[in-house]
Amino acid sequence: MRTTRDLIPVPCLAVILAVGVTLGGLLVGYEPVGGDPDRMYRPIKVELAAALHQGRLPFWSERFGLGVPLVADSHVAAFYPPNLVFYRILDVSTAYRLLMWFHYLLIGIATYLYAKGLSITPWGSAVAALSFTLCGFQTIHSSHEPFYHVMPFLPLCLLLADRYATTGRTFWTALLALAWGAQLTLGHFQIQMWTAVLVLVTGFWRIASERRPWGRGLGLALALAWGAAIAAVQLGPTWELAKVVGQTRRSFADLAFYSYPPAHWAELAIPSLFRGLRGGSEAPYWFSQQTTGFEACLFVGTVPLILAFFGLIGSGKRDALTPWRWIVPASFALATMPRWWPLGYASLLQLPGPGYFRCPARYTAITSFGLALLAGRGLDRAFSNRRFRIGLTLAAFFALASLVWALVWTTRPAFRSGLDDAALAARLGLAALTWTLGFLVLGLWRRGRLGPWGLVLLTALEMGALYHVGTTQWGWSVPLPASSPVLTFLSREPGVGRVGGALDNLPVRGGLTTATPYVGFPLPPPHDLLKASQSPRNADDPAVLPWLQRFGVTHAVWDGSVPTSLGETVFLGNDPALDLLAYRPAGAPERRLWRVVRLPSPLPTPRVALHALVVADRRTLIDGLSRQPNDDAAWYLAADAPPEPRTPRARSARVLRWTGRSGEVEHDGSCDLILDRMAYPGWTVQTNDGPERPVLSANGGLQVVRLDGSGTSQVRLRFRPTGFVVAAVVSLIATLAAVAVVGFALVRRSAGSGKRLEGD
Question: Fewer CB within 10 Å: N-end or C-end of the chain?
Fold first, then answer.
């Protein structure tokens, strides 16, 4: 009988235990709080869960601003299979935490398996897995759900590609297609692009080094295309949204910001050097380096870093880790390139793919992964004494150089303002102690006085400690709206429409609609006008009130430092939950006084415009609307204007009934029905029994329906993502084909095993 130890080797169990314990708080309600988890990801998942409980997907959500095509925002990951299960059967908070814990375990397991596939020893694979799973990149991005969700698929796809390059079996290409397709459904496609490139680079290396048929390289490319077809159901809507909002046409300044500061290379040896500077992760020091502390962090652990120098020394031309010895410096160069060669990085962005993604510091994820693999290779007693001495010398030189550089760099005024002498001395002293322990333990291991488990244990202790002192704020789950006096008040207040102010998506968690949507993409017009009208500097400007009324904003929530006379203050008091979860500008106190302002009644929606005006450009349109607060006309851009009506304009019109997407309008001539919902491709309208036609856009980007003739018109609107049926069919066929190939191969393997047993 096979035991657990036979199925899961002890080194892999050690990885599972170390990662599971490090993030074990997630199992009892200790989680990332505030920031993106509470202000963006959990509210989005609230809408996903609500839709799943109703047996549908949230193709469109009215809870965010003027409406958003929510499935198209890939942060929702509505087609990722685990999300469909967890958010259907569990509450959002529990599902979010369990999925986070589960995916971190998967990162460790997948990295372990890939390292083993590269002929790294079991305990070396464990060091690689721990080093990567809890590295600096993972630490600062523990607040970014897409990152730790997609990361297990990076080593998994590389493992499957390696298997195919070695064996040539279609079984592995089908699994690779399924794995990369699943990774694509998680959105935030930057790491997915890197995964595809690394699949091709490492796969071709394996093919070339082992002199396998070159046709397998084409097989890898086809597997990636197959995976993209599996994810077409997500890629189609997201690509449309990206084009509509201009994400495919971003400036160089936007794409090159958030690079990794070249001067921070010493952070590898002194992981705490740049953590916890005064002013936080958005202190002036960080902006002087063209980044923030939320995007720049690079460490893999002291013992793994020392071992990486052993692994850096090649052991033959056919070593499977040879590509990684080039990928590590290349990825670090890409992460820092905007600082030392802007023109070169600008040229790189002209290639298909890189120009769609910003934050070059995120290339350090590849740097960290490569260093972790090299560390795994370094944990091998079979190395010669000469190789061990060379590696040890290189590591010691790097540590000394890092110390010298740190002492030089930290004398700069920009840095000195963020850290005092005592804190700097403590951090350097802690790094010196860790390096001393690392060298000591390595020496004992080399002499056979300590098993490799000792290195794994020291790595787990150091990485576990560093993980929880990153930029992510950890704390106990905060249930909303119950824990928030402000949201509790609003949930009981009559006539609440859109809630604006300083809460981002937090009202959604209280069952309300936010007027300050915070999602993964910039939103199309008129969300820009909606956002501008709620800027803190405009909170006391009466000129913005007509815009707030036009967009259906009934309440605004500000902290006490924001003066406003736009409406009646109906709540003024403390709110510890909002103190913790809402965005806190630099310099703002931790405990704030919160104010709820009830604004004058918004304009009715829908409303009927008896007049129509056509203007040449958006500035003229906005100026005209600013001078006409009663909104008795529909203002069209020339490019969006419909043909002249077939009948005279109405003199009177009124809405008899409206249920959100359908109703009746009585009118004695042509008129325009204006809704406070964003116009977006895929919205169609049917009047009476006529054919469906696209909804029009007017008044800065709101939906408008032109009604001709006179009498009572039945109006019905519907949203269907354009091209979704075709994308869904492509995904279904591609998925079924991959599952069929895998299933057929498994059946054949099972049948072959049965025949061998009978023969025995």
Answer: N
